[in-house]
Design a protein that fits this description.
The chain is of the alpha/beta class. It has one domain: Vaccinia Virus protein VP39 (Rossmann fold). The N terminus is likely disordered. The longest helix has 18 residues. The protein is built from six helices and ten strands, in the order E-H-E-H-E-H-E-E-E-E-E-H-E-H-E-H.
């Protein structure tokens, strides 16, 4: 299957409804310039979809993501990059559910994964780094850890640790040399006016109407897309959600392939992007 099969000149976005791994297998090798994505977080959200990634044991979650990103690596061009946003969490203490929170309805969960072997109640799990190191071991080049600082982070009721206000974004590549448009993502500097972008990005979260869970802020996606691709390149998001990556690609003149398992989110993304 050609990934440009359904592309139109005025609407260069294609959404594939189905399992990320299976849909990735239909895409041609060495055709995608960059992948910008945020998979379901482990043990944090209940997306209510059978077969959802993140509902089982942590080793299975990591194994499932490794399979997906093996296919992502195959479809990326030799100078392609992967921009991966992953959030962390704490052990549940083997609690089986999470009660509703009036201030944050998405926190309610009908299941809670068991505490991973070797960890204790209240441990920070380190999920992002476990995934990053696993990808590194499978051949990816782990090039950068970016801290997404969220100035409007969700409040927490904890009193024995700081409130978490950041997530990780990892920049990974297939080979040592890859496309990186540093000139297009420079940040303000004191002396020269601009400077090479640093690894801490302060970007507020931005809810999208109709989405039940937190979405990528467009500004965050835009930095990744600008740095990792050029005009008319193809950008991939195998966990498309409500379609933020596609919206940013339309704005920047990139083609986009999105994959989404949840039919409701496919409908939201289609409407958002004007795909009928």
């Amino acid at each position: 299957m050609s990934i440009r099969l359904n592309f139109q000149k005025e609407m260069p976005t294609e959404i594939l409804h189905g399992d990320a791994l299976e849909k990735l297998k239909t895409l041609k090798t060495d055709t995608i310039q960059c992948c910008v994505t945020s998979p379901p977080y482990w043990g944090v959200r209940d997306y209510g979809i059978e077969g959802q990634i993140g509902a089982g044991p942590l080793p299975i979650y990591i194994e499932d993501l490794l399979k997906v990103f093996k296919e992502v690596k195959r479809v990326l061009k030799p100078d392609g990059t992967l921009w991966l946003n992953i959030g962390d969490c704490y052990t549940s203490g083997n609690r089986k559910t999470r009660a509703p929170d009036p201030k944050n309805k998405s926190r309610e969960m009908s299941y809670r994964p068991k505490t991973p072997k070797g960890l204790k109640k209240k441990d920070l799990i380190g999920v992002p780094w476990k995934i990053a190191f696993a990808l590194q071991e499978t051949g990816w080049y782990l090039r950068s850890e970016i801290i997404w600082h969220k100035p409007n982070c969700q409040p927490e009721s904890v009193k024995d640790r700081p409130t978490k206000a950041h997530e990780q974004i990892f920049l990974l590549s297939k080979f040592p040399k890859y496309l990186y448009n540093g000139w297009d993502v420079k940040e303000p500097g004191k002396k020269s006016g601009t400077r090479n972008r640093r690894t801490i990005w302060t970007i507020p979260t931005t809810p999208f109407p109709g989405a039940h869970f937190a979405t990528f802020p467009p500004k965050l996606v835009e930095l990744c897309v600008r740095a990792g691709s050029n005009s008319k390149d193809i950008v991939l998001d195998p966990f498309f959600g409500s379609g933020t990556t596609g919206e940013v690609c339309q704005k920047l003149g990139r083609d986009c392939v999105g994959i989404e398992l949840n039919e409701l989110y496919v409908e939201i993304a289609n409407e958002r992007l004007g795909i009928f």
